[in-house]
Amino acid sequence: MHNFEYHLASDLEAASKALSGAEDGKLMAGGMTLLPTLKQRLAAPSDVVDLSAIDSLKGIKKDGDTIVIGAMTCHADVAASDVVQSAIPALAVLAGGIGDPAVRHRGTIGGSVANADPAADYPGGLVGLGATVVTSKREIAADDFFLGLFETALEDGEIITAVKFPIPKKAHYQKFRHTASGYAVVGVMVAQTKDGVRVGVTGAAGSAFRATNFEEALSKDFSVKAVEGISQSAEDLLSDIHFSAEYRAHIVGVFVRRAVAAMA
Ligand SMILES: Cc1cc2nc3c(=O)[nH]c(=O)nc-3n(C[C@H](O)[C@H](O)[C@H](O)COP(=O)(O)OP(=O)(O)OC[C@H]3O[C@@H](n4cnc5c(N)ncnc54)[C@H](O)[C@@H]3O)c2cc1C
Q1: Mutational test site, ligand 1, from 4, 20, 26, 27, max ligand atoms within 8 Å of CB
Q2: What is 170-263's CATH number, 3.40.50.300, 3.90.660.20, 3.40.50.970, 3.30.390.50?
Q3: What is the Å distance from ligand 1's center to 26 Cα?
Q4: What is the pLDDT of residue 137?
C-alpha cells in the first residue's frame, strides 16, 4: 500500500473540503472494495476521506411513498430493516443476498452504487425500482447514473448522500449467485411501479440496464405467458471463463419469468 493522508470527516462539509483540498483524494465508505484496491497498489490516492463518522449519512426512513436510505447504511441494516421489509421486501432480499455476513456489515449502499461493479446487486435494484441517487450536488435518476463498467455519472468531488426508492406496487428480485464471491452472475429486479413495469438487470453486461422488450410485453399483459416468447439479446453481454453471453442472456429470460410467476 502506498502512503496517503487519512481524514476522518465529521460531517459532509468537512468531507467535501478534505476531498477538494486533496491532490488525488478518494472517499472511503466501508472500505470493502477500496482497501483491497489500495493493498494491491491498483490505486494510489494522496488522501483518503473516511465517511464512517458522518451520522447523517446513515439510516433508513419512509418519506411519503418513498424509502430513503442513507449512503453509509450497510447492507445488513437494509436487509433487517422493518421499513424496507414492509415497503419493498424485494430490496431487503437483495441486500440480504450480498456477499457474506462480513461484507454485509461493512459494505454500504453508497459505496456499492459509486463503485458500479458490473456484478453488484444494487445497480440492478436501483434501475429496476426506478430509484434516484442523491448527491452532495444534485439528484440523478438511476437510468442516467450507471454509464458503463465501473463508470457512473458522478463528477469529481461529488458525494452520494442517499438513495431514494419509490415504493412499488410489487417487486421481486432473482439472483444467480457466483458460488465463490456471491456477486451476481445475473440479477433481475422486476417491479410494478406507478409509472409502469420496470425490469432492471445486473451482472449480465458492463453496467446495469433495463430489459425494455420484457417491460413492453409485461406492460400490456403482466403474466408469464406474455414473456414466454421473449428473449434477451446476447449482443453486448459479458462473456468470461465462467459463463458465456448467450448463457447470461438465457438466464435473464428465465429470471424475468420466475419473478413474474412469484409476483402473480
Ligand atoms: C468478498 C466480497 C464479496 C462481495 N459480494 C458482493 C455481492 O454478492 N453483491 C454485491 O452487490 N456486492 C458484493 N460485494 C461488494 C460490497 O457489497 C460493497 O458494497 C462494495 O465492495 C463497496 O464497498 P464499500 O461500501 O465499503 O465502499 P468502499 O470500498 O469504501 O468504496 C468503494 C468506492 O466507492 C467510493 N465511495 C464510497 N462511498 C461513496 C459515497 N458516499 N459517494 C461517492 N463515492 C463513494 C469510494 O471512493 C470507492 O471508489 C462484495 C465485496 C467483497 C469484498
Answers
A1: 27
A2: 3.30.390.50
A3: 13
A4: 96
